[in-house]
Amino acid sequence: MDRHALAVMDLRHAVLASPGAVEQATREAAHHETPVPEPWVDYVAKVRDASYLITDADIEALIAAGCSEDAIFELTLAAAIGAATRRLDAGLRAVREAD
User: Fold this and answer.
1) Is the C-alpha dihedral spanning 68, 73, 78, 83 positive or negative?
2) Cys-Cys link to 71, which of 21, 39, 58, 97 (CB 3.0-4.6 A)?
3) CA–CA gap between residue 55 and residue 36 (Å, rounded)
4) Who contacts 33 (Cβ-Cβ below 8 Å, separation ≥6)?
5) Coil, strand or helix at 65
6) CA angle, 78 as apex, 61 and 83 as ends, to 5°?
7) What is the pTM of this model?
8) Alpha carbon separation from 31 to 16, 61, 99 (Å, rounded)
9) What pLDDT does residue 7 have?
């Protein structure tokens, strides 16, 4: 087991399994790149694929749709950590294959 695996597992558990403002199933969907309900679809895709393009308008649209700031935070974390760990896993595989 690599030296950071336990920390990554703990982070995933905290984001996905802890009680929150968003249902666990929705957080898991955002994390695993499976369909999420509206109004999250475009926002979660943007977090996964182009988070640098997120603006105040994106957040304001979610708030206008009835999403709380806590919910936005939770879905942001779930989607971002999912994307980051997929990239980490791909990088680690590439390093192992190069050795």
Assistant:
1) positive
2) 21
3) 20
4) 48, 82, 86
5) coil
6) 105
7) 0.88
8) 8, 21, 30
9) 87
Half-sphere CA count of 55, side-chain side, radius 13 A: 3
pLDDT (tens place) for every residue of the chain, 99 residues total = 577 788 888 999 999 999 999 999 999 999 999 999 999 999 999 999 999 999 999 999 999 999 999 999 999 999 999 999 888 888 888 888 887
Pick the closest to residue 34 from 44, 20, 43, 22 (CA basis): 44
Q: What is the pLDDT of residue 8?
A: 84
- In the block, which residue shows the tokens 């336990």? 6
17 residue type, one letter? A
**Which tokens in the block code for residue 75?**
């879905």
List Cβ neighbours of 2 (8 Å cut-off, separation of 6 or more).
92
